Amino acid sequence: MNHTEVLTRYTANFVDELNVNGITDVVISPGSRSTPLALTMAEHKGIKEWIIIDERSAAFFALGIAKQTKRPVALVCTSGTAAANYFPAIVEAHYSRVPLVVLTADRPHELRDVGAPQAIEQIKLYGDYVKWFQEMAIPEATPEMLRFSRSKAARSVYMAQEGNSGPVHVNFPFREPLSPDFSLENMWGEASEQSYMPAFDGKKRLDSEQLIQLIEKLKSKQKGIIVCGPQTDADFAEAVTSLASHWGLPILADPLSQVRSGQHHKDNVIEGYDAILRNEAVREKMKPDFIIRFGAMPVSKPYLFYVKEHMAVLQFVVENHTGYREPVGNTTEFIFADSVMLCKDLIETEPVLNFEKDWLDEWKRMNLISKKHLLGGSEENITEGEAVRALMEVIPDSSGLYVGNSMAVRDVDTFFMTTPKNISILANRGANGIDGMVSSGLGAASSGEPMTLLLGDLSFFHDMNGLLAAKHYNLNITILIVNNNGGGIFSFLPQAKDGRHFEALFGTPADVDFKHAVMMYGGEYAHAATEDELKEVLDKSYQHKGLSVVEVKTDRTANADWHRKKWKQIENEILNSGD
């Protein structure tokens, strides 16, 4: 058996096993050393290949696909710095628990550390940011080595999804010549629908004794809150709102919790808690007896202050799998169990808990005050909060919203109110970076579901390369850029008081006319100056197939003042109208 046949069979068995184990999408960045993987992926009928030239964009594009589909996605690149460009997205995937199977091609061992071009140290390149690493053997085509190839493919997909999902890294040393031969008979090996690593991986669940112990801890309490942080389980909203209704407790629901939208019961959802908790006196008045948090820590900084100021309060954090996400450092009891089953089990567990009704009523009262001020009024020149209000009013039902970091996600937290629309909301809140946002949104749009990407001008500028995917694949997406000509979030921080260095170091105005970039990539561009105008422009963008970019321009200082005015109005009415 010659070198080409060996290379082909070894690689084809690996690729086929990926597909057997559920890989249907691969994102490929062109390169020479990765030729065996790239061509074989493209040849496989069960795998859809996406060609993204820029490796950083490619990795975030794959991240977006995986977040949207909730399935692992493969990545393929050549050796050298190409692999290093995956790093930001791998860090995000690690912290946001997204399954990626990263396949890097490498020089063979004899060409490493000898001055050969495009050869860097790729062994465990991503350190602890991947769940599992495998250095593959030089290709062989013996029955034993083909089984080895398949077993590592199966394990890579399993490890990416096992427990808390995340990225895995498989490194392939390839010798030249690199082109496979697809005319070989039985190239893919023995056809099988059975994985090389079949596994029955059940969900965690508390037993009856543990449920009773939990209930006993809560029996003497009167004032509790349920907090829902970022998570993506489609069944969770119905389960947690049913529990809140059964117990008579408020739900502080982060916008990424998927609890604010949909057809489920939402009477106990307090979406205005970020505005409510900005006042220290209110935070003290609303001290709870216990907190049950599902999922990651919410976006809201006032909620962070609220938890810090009540460190002695009994707190439970529910995670589907073993993990630690408690950034405040409070004493916390962890419940490692499937969130949906836990809610259902608690509803069915006796005795029935009776919490203070006035507690829930007070949260609802404050929430109505918050919503009245946040949704009221209209400015002559659009503010960033108004931009989010307009977006949430006209965004289509059964669509997705991918939200950028910094001010974008915070304004969604503040101005996205409960709705019967089914809107799935995604964001890169693992590492909270502004990089790769365009590519992530486009990756999510590749599923075919209507998608809106909301982000700031710096996030857009940082990943304009990502727009090539929209042009190349005619992806259907509306991008709303809130352009305050710089880092608007810093206007809310103490750094804004530094008159000498603020603009250069924090404001960082780019002064870029984005219309030209949008036109370069074949997109439609529109600008809106008022909230009503934005609704009209956005509505038209949803009728357009392909890339649509809508831009609103705001003033950073005026925007910060407008937000503070809203918060002050809410604070004053809450404090002056209470009992």
Automatic annotation (TrEMBL):
GO terms for biological process: menaquinone biosynthetic process. Pfam families: TPP_enzyme_C, TPP_enzyme_M_2, TPP_enzyme_N. Binds 1 thiamine pyrophosphate per subunit. Its cofactor is Mg(2+); Mn(2+); thiamine diphosphate. The gene is menD. Its EC number is 2.2.1.9. Belongs to the TPP enzyme family. MenD subfamily. Pathway: Quinol/quinone metabolism; menaquinone biosynthesis; Quinol/quinone metabolism; 1,4-dihydroxy-2-naphthoate biosynthesis; 1,4-dihydroxy-2-naphthoate from chorismate: step 2/7. It catalyses: isochorismate + 2-oxoglutarate + H(+) = 5-enolpyruvoyl-6-hydroxy-2-succinyl-cyclohex-3-ene-1-carboxylate + CO2. Transmembrane segments: none annotated. Keywords: Magnesium, Manganese, Menaquinone biosynthesis, Metal-binding, Thiamine pyrophosphate, Transferase. It comes from Virgibacillus profundi. This is 2-succinyl-5-enolpyruvyl-6-hydroxy-3-cyclohexene-1-carboxylate synthase.
